[in-house]
Amino acid sequence: MVDFAQAGKTGWHRRALAMCAIAWLTASLAQADEVEVLHYWQPQDKGTLVLKHMLQQQGHTWKDFVIIPGGSNGLLNSLLKARVQSGNPPFAALVRAPVARHWGRKQRLSNLDDAAQAGQWDTVLPPAIRDAVKDGGRYIAVPVSVYQENGLWLNNRLLGRVGARAPHDWPSFFEAADKLRQAGIVAVAHGGQARGNLHLFASVALGVGGPDFYRRAFVQHESAALSGAMMEKVLLTFRRIKPYTRTESGLRDWQDVSNDLVEDRAAMVFMGGWVAPVFAAARARSGFDVSCVAAPGSAGAFSYLIDSFAMFAQRSAAQEKVQQRFAAGLLAPAVQTRFNQERGAIPVVAAADLTTFDTCARQSAAAFRKAEAADKLVPSFALAMTAPLEVEFAEIVSAFWVDDSMTPSAAMQQLATAVKSDR
Fold first, then answer.
1. Which range marks the domain in which residue 172 is found?
2. DSSP class of residue 60?
3. Is the residue at 41 inside a domain?
4. pLDDT the model gives residue 199
């Protein structure tokens, strides 16, 4: 979740470019049994190690091509574009579905039909997940994880100290926030990065407007939804949260933000399931008492984010056969269980065993199924928009968050203009 629009101001950008240069120079040095994977995870992350072990069992070695661990970003996509256009694509790349769709339409991806048919992907994948990674009836990526984005995580000790309950709607949220602030406790941990601002905005939009409004505004991009009374209410609710966050300046990533809860510096954080491993480690280390609920007003709905791998066309048929086996292995129920348990996500295949998952993950899986049955699943912005439009939305939303003089009308006009420019 690194925000590179801001990262350049703090030195991250230079380090990122240095890492990219090193990775580019070493890319051609891979041995015959090595396959290069472009991703943004920690190389020794337990979840990453699950996939590396799986590939090793297939007789191959995973060669990391990492872009500043911590989250997807424009730098990864820019480097991927350069690699593909130079004729030196990676074996696989961790990308959002719209990026995979772009390369699929340019005929740069390997054909996954054999793996999909053998694994009955059309049957084992939920329709929303399946449709997100298909284009023109063919799979353009392999989904590996589903995260619930509209989550609110609670430091139970701090809420208990002021007699506040877990909020379920916006009145109860602001009631709890007021109690916390009166006691001198930061109610909401927030980092101020553009991606973090956009994530908070999306959770507010779903909680205030509901899934139908969310789809009309951010999936279908209806002008009336982007510029109407409900959007104004969303923006005002979003800005209303600001006084309950830390007031000092400085941009912080999601790991630092989540540690505010662990260290009792804040009581609540709007965050997706990816934060679960941080809290699990704190619970094991010190008994940290955390609980998870849907963001205010969004119970019953589910905003889903999918991690997926695109397999890029290789020069040899043998390498593409390796890709087929790798793709099949990613959706093996045992791999799905072990991998997603370490990532704070839920498996994409229904056959995966959830008995060893923690309460929040099982709760998330149940929420997904319930929302699916009620037609209340909505895609995250990262799935619903092109990468450039998502970046522009983040910039507009961040400007509204930072500049109190910016009116909702001005923000709505900019959102509508961004959509028109992206068409």
1. 151-302+379-422
2. -
3. yes
4. 97
| Mean pLDDT of the region 129-153 | 97
CA-nearest of 260, 246, 277 to 145 is: 277
Which tokens is 154 given? Answer: 């609670």
- 345-367: pLDDT as tens digits: 999 998 888 999 999 999 999 99
Band the pLDDT of 77: cuts 50, 70, 90: confident
229 to 199, 213, 236, 409, 412: CA distances (angstroms): 21, 11, 11, 10, 10
* SS3 label, residue 171: helix
- Range 120-144 average pLDDT: 97
Q: How many CB atoms lie within 10 A of CB 106?
A: 10
Domain shared by 246 and 394, yes or no: yes
d(CA 55, CA 271): 31
Establish if 18 belongs to a structural domain.
Answer: yes
Sequence letter at residue 372: E
The CATH number given to whatever domain includes residue 77 is: 3.40.190.10
Evaluate whether residue 369 is within a structural domain: no
Return phi, psi of residue 63, to 5°. Answer: -105, 115
DSSP string, 354-412: -TTS-HHHHHHHHHHHHHHHTT-EEE-HHHHS-HHHHHHHHHHHHHHHH-TTS-HHHHH
Residues in the chain: 423
Across 149-278, the runs of DSSP E, i.e. the strands, are 151-155, 186-188, 266-270
Q: In the predicted model, what is the mean pLDDT of the chain? A: 91
Q: What is the CA radius of gyration of the chain?
A: 21
* CA dist., res. 140 & res. 92, Å (int): 12
Per-residue buried b or exposed e for 316-349, using 16+ beta carbons within 10 Å of the residue's own CB: eeebbebbbbbbbbbbbeebbbbbbbbbbbbbbb
What's the rounded Cα separation, in Å, for the pair 417 and 269?
31
Q: What is the pTM of this model?
A: 0.90
Helix and strand element counts for the chain (H, E): 21, 12
d(CA 198, CA 200): 5
Does 83 share its domain with 28? yes
In a domain, 328, yes or no: yes
Cα–Cα nearest to 77, from 92, 96, 91? 96
DSSP symbol at 192: B
- What is the C-alpha separation between 370 and 302, in angstroms, rounded? 9
pLDDT given for residue 179 in this prediction? 98
